[in-house]
Batch of 3 targets.
Target 1
Amino acid sequence: MGIKFCKPSSIWAKCREWASCHLVELGHIFFPPSCAACGEDISLTSEAVKTRPDYKAPLCEACVLTFTDLRPRCDRCGLPKYSGSICNFCQKITDQLGVTEILWQQIFVLGSYEDCLRTAVIAGKRPSGEALVEALSKLLLNQRPSIQELKVDAVIPVPMHWRKRWVRGTNSANIMAKQIASSLKVPYRCSIRCKRLKRPQKLLSAKMRATNMADKFYVRGNQLTGKRVLVVDDVATTGATLSAITHCLLEIGATVVYAAVLARTDDVTNHVGKR
Ligand SMILES: [Zn+2]
Ligand SMILES: [Zn+2]
């Protein structure tokens, strides 16, 4: 009977795993893990929450319930709907034109851009809110229908002009894209670039937003040609930014484009088809 010896590298890996696990536990005694949204101590989280697939998100039970929007949404525009797979506005456009103006295949939305989720998304725009954006991205991944079933080849963030990013110190879309790409085990790409800094979208009407976005972006390289791409951003209002990026990606030969956002303004006057 032979004695099995572990390779030194595997012994070292096991030691490192044991040490990191116990150091984390020791650290929790002095610095209890807190909710990324409200700061509540989450070391005493109930077993019911611990068994949920999104438990790893550093959020307390109350915040997970607050941010999880279970209202059915339109696959095309992301607005709440009452029946069918698409909303009345999208159906009207499809019936009248035979086609829909929305270029992406499907949009995934965590919830409405209001109340607690709005506060959390705004907090996530600061460098101190990166853990919160990661936690919200994990919740978005675990929403139904699931992004995990799309079989995308790459995840890309909506880019931010370097000057704006320099002032803000972070870009929530980048944090989201990295988190989602790592969970899906697909590459994170920064292939979309801003040509120039445009006027802030929030100051413009729905029609002006589309014009403001025209020719704003370009795709660098051909890594996304023939690929299934997921574009992510923190907020969608009219969808003008996501539409402009989807247009660029389809132009360079991306097979299909999906969109995912943490929050969507549920005002029908902002519908993409109403531009
Ligand atoms: Zn909380
Ligand atoms: Zn719709």
Note: The chain has two domains: 9-65, 71-274.
Target 2
Amino acid sequence: MKMRLLFLGTAAAEGLPALWCNCPVCANAKKTGGREIRTRSQILIDDCVMLDFPMDTYMHVINNRLDLSRVDTVLITHAHMDHCYPQEFILHGAPFAHGMTEPHITVYGNKTVKKTFRQATKPEMRDSIKRSITLNAICPFDSFTTEGGYEITALPAKHTKGEDCLIYAVKHNGVTVLLFNDSGILPDETYARMAELNLKFDAISFDCTYGHARHGSGRHMGSLDAAGEREKMKRYNLVHENTKYVLTHFSHNCEMSHAELEQTEKDNNFTVAYDGMKIEID
Ligand SMILES: [Zn+2]
Ligand SMILES: [Zn+2]
Ligand SMILES: [Zn+2]
């Protein structure tokens, strides 16, 4: 196994069941449990690179028995609260954490993320803990290599106005993956750059907020939009015949349960992510 993706959370901002909701999808999730329950979206790459940091990170550590202190890199897609909940970083060190595997952590995000991180952690951040965290503001198209040798490229998503929302291409150990959280159909400049870099993805995880639907333009996607992106990626020669295609970041407003989505998307050659799902890439 050359890379492992662990889908820790797979819901949109409100969670599933949504915090205040009694709709049929949420009622079914509460009743059925298991894969119908989705927490806010987060993906762990191997043991050391984390995509996004929602408020459910604590539950993800408990549910998956993680050693979160093995994470040396956090990639944040954008500053919305379901992707960037930096308050927990005030606990990154003594006296709140002992025997940490990796005492230093680097957080990457756009300049809005950096500002949000600073503001949210300022009231309670200890100087000793602040020194254990490096906060790097990055721009779309920036490439960098993490301490563990993961080659990362930040690419423009299409999401919210006034912020450079990102998706990330991650390359390590001969494997390359492309990880979305919130994004509508990608801008042409993202395709142009991915082609220029000769990226060839072994796995892609798409935004699927709208479930089995086509939204066209907008700040999120449904699986039919994702299928359109997949065709475009084929045209740009960015994928191969064994590329794995995953859908995540689901909203209750798609009006389908996990079981129903799995059934629908099987024919569509998509894997429907659930909390705790592992994808291993050889
Ligand atoms: Zn989101
Ligand atoms: Zn609901
Ligand atoms: Zn968002």
Note: The radius of gyration is 18 Å.
Target 3
Amino acid sequence: MLKDRTGLAFFVGLLLAGTAPDARAHPAHAKPVNYPFVVGFERFHSGMDDEAYLAEGGFILLNELNCVACHAPPAVLAEQFSGVVATELDGVASRLAPLELEIFIRNPRFAKRDTTMPSLFAGPDRDLDEVAALRAWLGTLTKEIPAHPLGDIERGRALYHRTGCVACHAPETGYRPPGVPDNAEIEMAGLASVPMNLADLYDLNALVEFLLHPNEHRPSGRMPDFGLSVADASDLAAYLKAGPDLVLPENLTEALTADAPTADTALVAKGRELFLTKQCHACHTMPGNTDAHQAAPSAKSLASLDPAATGGCFSERPVGGPVPFYGLDLLQRRALAAALKRLGERSALDPAREIDWRMKQLNCYACHERAGIGGPETSREVYFGFSGPEAIAMGRDGHLPPALDEAGKRLVRERLEGILFGPTRPVSSRPHLVVPMPVFRKESVAPFPVLFPAADHGGAP
Ligand code: HEC
Ligand code: HEC
Ligand code: HEC
Ligand code: HEC
């Protein structure tokens, strides 16, 4: 049985909730977990104490936490463990204020406790001059951001709760989607939600830009593009920035200008160099430089790591030097150790297993069920909006995305390509749906049009 790891936290949260607006009620202020949050592990592999199943979760972590960027996987598994490319840092100084930028470099867990970015400056040997240099350099990475008209908080709030965001992110506790009868109880979401606390820290216009182009901003491809209009993105951003009181802060533009770093050229140059020596480029592409992989990240190979290690990246406290600190919890360490132990037995995945592997990474399961796995959590179904009385009459089919069983039989490869990445997406056969099929990064979904037919016909596509 899959068990909910956050159940207790929610229960405690409920007991503590008083009459004052509870910060946790708002999705961008939801209570974070105290370890790096990886949705595919959290939903599917954290609740069952079966060694093989936990190891499967460990494999997901090896990829999603980008361990494989420094600890090279065996050549035969290189394609499977391609890792993730982290947030594009070009323009970061137009998103985060100098102080927040500094905190993120120094210890990202202070800016976002459940972040998947490990800390490289939390060890006892941390050098704050290096932090300052990195901040000085990242501080020069500004980008022209269009000033969008101020969005409408209430419209954004309604949109957020009907357009599919809540498939992955937290609903606002206590929010009642329209159409839910007054006497019906709104169930708490049981499964953990993808954190989005940075929405609170980003500059408002930068947040709008992010929502319009998530695939460029986050090359990880984990946050899909909903094809939002500028007006819708502005409304959503206003809601996310407004926080639990549903009021926008007064100093919306001051944040980025208050303490603009003066560009000390020597310091900036040092920061630029540190980006490579501190191995930031293991996960981030080097801004302004397309061939910065010259100094390939170096550490022991994945196969040579000791599953029983208690040091290095498995250490409970930051050890410093070149070793990153993730703040892994005990279960994650066990899963990772189990995966390392089974690395030798890991083989190429057949199409059905590869579909499952990728659907967990990209969280397709938040919206789609396949082979009895995933699908929207029952308590979240109310956040998949109905378009009108006709859709309501259709029941669940009127608002929930289709199950993907036999997708490869129903849909030919060209059609699948069209649905997943165009160039022009086919006209929907389900115009009653409010939640769209969002656009994922093409690199992330490119294998699916081949995999679905191969898995569902039991042969070559
Ligand atoms: C930015 C690069 C980097 C990333 C990312 C990284 N590591 Fe490491 N890791 C190191 C370095 C450097 C060491 C020190 C030993 C060495 O040179 O391999 C180390 C050491 C270790 C050790 C101890 C090695 C031993 O045999 O004593 C383990 C275990 C480990 N890492 C596991 C992981 C796991 C699991 C992840 C992902 C959650 C990860 N590492 C992510 C760089 C990295
Ligand atoms: C399929 C799951 C999924 C859906 C649906 C989704 N998101 Fe996300 N979102 C993510 C993931 C995963 C990340 C983190 C991505 C990363 O760091 O690479 C993210 C990040 C974000 C962030 C950045 C904040 C932070 O702390 O990283 C914001 C803001 C955000 N999402 C808003 C939205 C909004 C608004 C919607 C609805 C229009 C939405 N998301 C729908 C998965 C999703
Ligand atoms: C093991 C991979 C990894 C390494 C190494 C790494 N980062 Fe990150 N970084 C990430 C991930 C993943 C995110 C997105 C985190 C999130 O949204 O929760 C991120 C986000 C950031 C952000 C916030 C950007 C934004 O606009 O939201 C900054 C700044 C940053 N990293 C700087 C650095 C610097 C500087 C270094 C080197 C000292 C570094 N990172 C090393 C994975 C990494
Ligand atoms: C936010 C919810 C959401 C997420 C996340 C999502 N989808 Fe979808 N998907 C939909 C909706 C809604 C449709 C139906 C679109 C229509 O018919 O108009 C759909 C349709 C599809 C179809 C066509 C199915 C059919 O029978 O017509 C495929 C294939 C598909 N999605 C694959 C994926 C894959 C692969 C992922 C992960 C990379 C994914 N989807 C993530 C909402 C989602």
Note: Residues 164, 167, 359, 362, 364, 366-368, 401-402, 404, 407, 410, 416, 419, 428-430, 433, 435-438, 440, 445, 448 surround heme C (ligand 4) (CB under 6 Å).
